[in-house]
Amino acid sequence: MSEKSPAEEPAAVDPARPADPAEPIGEVAEKEWWDDPRMPWKSKPGRQDIACWTAFALTGLYGLVMLPLRPVIFAASPYVLAGITGSRTAVVTIGALTAVGGGHWWPVGLVLATLAIMKFDWIYFWAGKLWGRGLIEIIAGRSARSARRAAKAEALADKYGPVAVLATYVLPLPSPIIYAAVGSAGMRWRTFVALDAISAFSTRVIFMFLGYKIGKPAVRVVELIADYSWYLSLAIIAGMILAWAWGHWRAKGREKLGSEA
Length: 261
Prior knowledge:
The chain is an all-alpha fold. It has one domain. It has twelve helices and no strands.
């Protein structure tokens, strides 16, 4: 039996030598839970990242829950809706009720609506501070249309900064992207909070004044909405279910086409 030549013998492995990352090690190491391109961070998240992401997720859950409840809350009391959502409809109604002698607590409604309309804005600003463009990339990646809107909003925030924050209350702009962009650009917390509060308060004043000028006709519309509030809520719930079913059906169809290709 011939012995192996030195060239054929396996090289001795030094246990003290660190492994070369380029060398195959048998099985591919399993990814960590946070190592996902759908997440906004680029490295292992810390406590602030987890807290901010949790708050961001809760805002989405809050929006889903409140969507069908708005008509019912509005019918019960515009002050309650103003204090929960800062709704323009609620603020206009409070102004209209004041015009006909039924809105003695309008200053309270104004303050509550101002605080409510800006309650989640700090989360998006914080996300911009933490992750830079991470949150913007997530929002932009939903569709080609979302990407175009995100690019325009980010460019507006980069160019105008404070003015862009003010504009989110009067123009149909994706405010989360604006707030994340100015946070990423280095705007100070106190500057952002001051701009946000001024914008929220001034626009609530304008809407309440409009309601005051409209007066009784606006109150009649409110009474009509109150009479059919439960029907509106049920219609919204049905629409949400249909939208979910449609999206689920389309996703299944894409999976089927992919498997047949």
